[in-house]
Amino acid sequence: MSIALVRCGSPASLDSLTPGTGDDPGQPGPGQIRVRLQASSLNFHDYAVVAGMIPTAAGRIPMSDGAGVVEAVGDGVSEFKPGDLVMSTFFTDWLDGHTPGTGFASTPGDGIDGYAREAVVTPQDWFTHAPAGYSAAEAATLTCAGLTAWRALFVDNAIRPGSTVLVQGSGGVSVFALQFAKAAGARVVATSSSDEKLERLKALGADHLINYKAVPEWGKQALELTDGKGVDCVVEIGGAGTLDQSMLATRVGGHVALIGVLTGRGGPVETALLMGKSLRVQGLVVGSRQHQLEMIRGVEASGLKPVISDYFPLAQLADAFRHQIAGKHFGKIVVDI
C-alpha cells in the first residue's frame, strides 16, 4: 500500500514541492498510534522550510500541524482509542517543564518529516485529543499558531479581566491572541495596514484599531488610547522593524512577547526605552505538550472556534503558500488531506 504526500525538493522552494506517494507506515507498535490525517494548516515556519529559508534534509515532508482520526493503537496505549480525533504537538520531545535545547530537531516538517501526508504511525505522546466539538480542520490550526498565542498570554504572562493586549496584523497567531484575550475579559488594541481587515478584527471584539500604514508611530497612538499608561502585553510578530514601537506602546513593567521576524531577524533596539520602562521582552517558540493540554481545556471552556480563511487540497500545497505570502488570508489557511 502507499499514501499520498508532498515532499520538498533540493534545494527547497515552492516550485520544488512535489505531490506523490510513499510507503504506508503500517501498524503501530507498543506505545504507538496510527493516525489517518485529515488536515494541516500553514504557519510562517512552514513557509520558511518549503522556501529554503530554513535548511532541511532533501525530500523532507513539510508541515508541523496535523490533525486526524486514530485508526489503531499499539500495546500499552491507554490515552487514545480508534476513532478519537487528535492533533499533533509542535515539539515531539517537549512534554513539560523547561524548553529543551534541541531546537527544531524534533519538529515535524523541519527536523523530522511532517504531516503533509495521509497517515502516520508515531509515539502516542506526539498527539493530544482535539477539543470537543472541533473538526479536524479546526484542530489543525491550534498546534502552532493557537498554542503560540496561548503561551504569550497565559504561560509567559498572566492576562486577566481588565488587562490590555496589543496584537499586530491578522495572521493566525494575532487572531488567536485577540480571541483568547477577549475570552479572558481583556481589552485589545489591534493593528493592521488594511482598513478592511481592521473592521474584521473589530467584529471579533477588538476595542481599538490602528492602521500602522497611516500611523507609522502607532506605539504613541497606543499610549494615547490607554490614557498614557500603555498596554500590558504586545504580541510582537514583526521583529526588529516593529519592536521599538511595541516597547513604546507597553506600560512600565509590561511584557512584549517576541514571536515573529516578519520585518527582519536583526537590527538596532532602543535599549534605553527597554531599560527605562523595565520591560520584559521575551522570545518564545510555541510550547510544550502540557501547555497544549491546558490550552485545549481553555478552548473547551470558552467555546472559542478558530477563524479559517481558506482551504486548499494537499496536492495544491504550493498554491496555498503563494496565497499566504500574498497576504490574502485572514486567520488561518487549512490544507485538506
Structure notes:
The strands form 3 sheets. Strands 3, 4, 5, 6, 7, 14 and 15 form a 7-stranded mixed beta sheet that branches. The chain has helices spanning 44-50, 136-140, 142-155, 172-183, 195-203, 218-225, 243-249, 271-276, 289-302, 317-325, and strands spanning 2-7, 18-23, 32-41, 67-73, 85-88, 119-123, 127-129, 164-168, 187-192, 208-211, 231-236, 250-258, 280-283, 308-313, 332-336. The longest helix has 14 residues, at 142-155. It is 27% helix and 26% strand. It is an alpha/beta fold and 337 residues long. 49% of the residues are buried. The model has no long low-confidence stretch (mean pLDDT 96). The protein folds into 2 domains: 2-142 and 305-336, Medium-chain alcohol dehydrogenases, catalytic domain (Quinone Oxidoreductase, Chain A, domain 1, Alpha-Beta Complex), CATH 3.90.180; 157-283, NAD(P)-binding Rossmann-like Domain (Rossmann fold, 3-Layer(aba) Sandwich).
